[in-house]
Task: structure prediction
Amino acid sequence: MLRLRAAARAVVRPGGRGAPRSGGDALARRPPAAPYPCPVSSPAPDSLLGPADIRELAAALGVRPTKQRGQNFVIDANTVRRIVRTAEVRPDDTVVEVGPGLGSLTLALLEAADRVTAVEIDDVLAAALPATVAARMPARADRFALVHSDAMHVTELPGPAPTALVANLPYNVAVPVLLHMLDTFPSIERTLVMVQSEVADRLAAAPGSKVYGVPSVKANWYAEVKRAGAIGRNVFWPAPNVDSGLVSLVRRTEPIRTTATKRQVFAVVDAAFAQRRKTLRAALAGWAGSAAAAEAALVAAGVSPQARGESLTVEEFARIAEHAQQGA
Result:
């Protein structure tokens, strides 16, 4: 263990703590294996990381999971393989993973996909991951690429366009990261994310549900969304205080038919749920310029001015945005 820690300290981290976070200047395509330690003293029966491997690697790197970044590392090989199966990852897929951490899910994805690109913001974790992949799965190392960046700033990825997104997303940034990736990379056909159970419920909620809101509507703009399972707390290190859930998103084969732009539709959605207890006539008054203008747009769109945002589909929000533009 002392030798592993010494090796970790000897590595020069790319860019240090002030490394750039934008997508364009932080791409790293399969950097040469650094002398970062990889779990070896208690190897798993296969290429994946087990609980002892995760803790040994974290200790050697001096990594302590932080609440600030919502870091909870998956330590169960069966769970990551279940995630890959549920995501229906295919041998011809190019998968993008956000927040790979120590590489538990990354390795499972490399077993199933053609290529995997991982986006990691943490300096130490980003520097260590290529060496872990090379040591645990050398035959697939040339199929792995790393982007050292904040996912919210990523606008391009190395290699072929991604066809799938699979990630264990921190609860505090899960929705904005998910929506950014779906918007930025239209080639992503299938998505499976593991998020806090409450967030999973909101993303997959249908109109009329008490938890239906902005995340539900915006996710549905891009894809058909559904809950895809639950994940227990004991498969994480450290164990979180909340349960987790899987959410599946399959991109729409045909986009929402509307003459309004995404920005215009999302502006209506934001306004409707900013005051969700109010009728749409009142909630959209500021957005439309007046309550009367809001009512006119609602009536033209075939939506009752007395309805509330939680009862509307994404298509109805689009119609409201269209008629507001027509009346402007």
